[in-house]
Amino acid sequence: MKTALSPRLVLAAFVALLLVAPLVLPAFYITLLNYIGLYAMVALGLVLLTGVGGLTSFGQGAFVGLGAYTTALLTTSAELPGWLGWAGGSPWLALLVGLVFTCVVAFLIGKLTLRLSGHYLPLATIAWGLSLYFLFGTMAFLGGHTGLTGIPPISVFGYELRQGEEVYYLIWLFVLAGVLTTSNLLDSREGRAIRALKGGMVMAEAMGVDTARSRMVIFILAALLACASGWLYAHMQRFVNPTPFGLHIGIEYLFMAVVGGAAHVWGALVGAGVITVLKQWLQDLLPKLFGTSGNFEVIFFGVLMVLVLHKARGGLWPILVSGFKRFIPVAAQRRTVDRDAVALPRRELPAAGSVLLEAKAVTRRFGGLLANNNMSLEVRAGEILALIGPNGAGKSTMFNQVSGVDTPTSGEVLFLGESVVGKGSRTIARMGMSRTFQHVRLLPTMSVLENVAIGAHMRGSSGVLSAAWRMERSEEARLLAEAARQIERVGLGEHMFDEAGSLALGQQRILEIARALASDPCLLLLDEPAAGLRYKEKEALGDLLRKLRAEGMGVLLVEHDMDFVMGLVDRVVVMEFGEKIAEGLPEDVQRDPAVLAAYLGGED
Ligand SMILES: Nc1ncnc2c1ncn2[C@@H]1O[C@H](COP(=O)(O)OP(=O)(O)OP(=O)(O)O)[C@@H](O)[C@H]1O
């Protein structure tokens, strides 16, 4: 049997290859590798922004330009304004200024554009990408279209990096640092929030994630990676002009990320490598083939892009990995849960019997349709209340009104005595209300453990930098231990490390309950939790809810399975055509003529 290599060993071998490359390769290839490294940094930002976060940007070239022009100006200008004088002449200080400046510009552009959705956001990135590009070319102090020359080389401990093979090491140090910090970030509390942006925004907000902040974080990080690439580029070339920072290169960066594998950090390197080498090769070959000069490679890239989108949407990285593993087995990187991690602090539950949730005369109109009409209900601590009714009665709408996903047309919703109308699901979640969804909302390619850990998001506080530099490991261990505890509590322990999308639908619903519990709520809203469960699973779910009730939690349940409801809950509210038609103990409600009429179309 072949023994599997550890991923660390594979990484070490790659780093070793990078180290010896300048010693054995001719200068031409080193220059090529330098460009690959510079492009890979920008593509890495796009992996984070587009591949993981789902925000498409065509404008990254402009951020590369910001980094390049800032350092060019600061290191060549003889007359800097007094307040900037300290940064003059030193590439390293210029990098610092460039990063801060890029951060500010990205923040302002992000504030203006990141709220846009669908195709409006990519259009906006084209708009600001073009604006910055034309600014570089028209500002006299930036040298217009001729640009700035005489940029000094970077010095490291007094040694000037003048040759390609000298700056090579610095470029690849930056690339590896970028890959490492991005991988660290994605494997953290902040990273889970970022990975939820693509397709899981409503769920993430309901779990207390500030999705607008996460969008801003990846936008700024992608801009900073581009800025660092621009800084290195300027000092490698020793001159800058606007040409390499235009929209066409912005599109090329996106090509690199997509071709390499936009959802994988290493895909950025593969994409940058493949596109750069192909471009070089085609620029030599195609004019000879066609007998005339021209940018024929652009047509080739267009075709390549269409092929990738059709045949390998995940890009080349996953294909390379599976091909590599066929010849050289690599051990899977398995997560472990630290059972000894200190338990997270728990919320003190309100006294049993005290009112948790109070909806008063809630009305919700959709145009002419009254989905909820004058609905009132109350849920107390240590009680399970079922909200039932035929299809289309308005139960889910009511659920959305009390959980902040939607705002009532009129009426009042009080949670723990405080009005929550218009507060938004994130704020309400932080107050102690957690929910599951009628149509399961989870992140199918993430593990069960990571999905449930999103529920615990608001119980942690570590930020982006501590995640990128692995300084939040003790908090992360506590969050994962809490997630693992909840997974075992709901009976999904054996699936802890499986992909959430591989679970049966019933198990996915149970996963949602574990995720809601991980937020340590005092009120749990469950939308059809028993749908798709087998008999034994329903029994286990019933036992779990009874246990939660005994602990003092309040539960509001929307459910169609009457056997499940009637044997479990304390009280029932029945809806029909948006209105409450009955309320009371399960045994009384079952005999209510109005309820029988609603369900059976009339009494026998
Ligand atoms: N966003 C919306 N826009 C317009 N109409 C809506 C919207 N949401 C719900 N409705 C309508 O409101 C009514 C109540 O829908 P709701 O989903 O709340 O019922 P329900 O009791 O949860 O049904 P089910 O048991 O089938 O899930 C339906 O007629 C539905 O079509």
TrEMBL record:
Keyword field contains rRNA processing: no
Keywords: ATP-binding, Cell membrane, Membrane, Nucleotide-binding, Transmembrane, Transmembrane helix, Transport
Membrane topology of the entry: Multi-pass membrane protein
Location relative to the cell: Cell membrane
Segments passing through the bilayer: 36-55, 62-86, 92-114, 126-147, 167-186, 216-234, 254-277, 289-309
Entries under InterPro entries matching the protein: AAA+_ATPase, ABC_AA/LPS_Transport, ABC_transp_permease, ABC_transporter-like_ATP-bd, BCA_ABC_TP_C, LivM-like, P-loop_NTPase
GO terms assigned for molecular function: ATP binding; ATP hydrolysis activity; branched-chain amino acid transmembrane transporter activity
Primary localization: membrane
Domain ABC transporter intervals: 357-602
Record-level GO cellular component terms: plasma membrane
Name of the molecule in the record: ABC transporter
Species this protein is from: Thauera phenylacetica B4P
